[in-house]
Amino acid sequence: MSETGYVYYLERLAGKVERRNGRYYFEYLDDYINDPSMPSISVTFPKQEKIFESDVLFPFFFGLLAEGELMEMQCRLLRIDEKDHFTRLRETAGWETIGAITVRKHED
Question: In total, how many domains does the chain have?
């Protein structure tokens, strides 16, 4: 089973982050890679065609998640397991994140 989050730089679709079979993947979209005016979303994700892979949610994306009481409130209201970081990312990082990156469940 695969789940996808769409990654935006400001309001521009930059790529997608996926959870498949317990692994995590990040991939830039070709249009974003080929636009020299658009920056990498992070120093840990330089613009390239390579798909990034990890056994855990990438620290960059984990850093977009709320902590403490706000995390507890979000999980309670949205009925998300506090340990399900990927679902938390897709459900809560689509607005009001620190910086220019947001992650949304659906491609806008």
Answer: 1
**SS3 helix, strand, coil % of the chain, rounded to 5?**
25, 30, 45
Domain assignment present for 7: yes
Could you tell me the residue range of the domain that residue 46 belongs to? 2-103
Query: Residue 57, Cβ neighbours under 10 Å: how many?
Result: 19
- pTM: predicted TM-score of the whole model, two decimal places: 0.91
**65 contacts 94 by C-beta, under 8 angstroms:** no
Residue 80: inside a domain: yes
The answer to whether 38 touches 32, Cβ cutoff 8 Å, is yes
pLDDT tens, position by position, 42-89 = 999 999 999 999 999 999 999 999 899 989 999 899 999 999 999 999
In a domain? residue 108: no
Among 15, 18, 17, smallest CA distance to 33 is for 15
- Who's near 78: CB < 8 A, 6+ residues apart? 91, 92
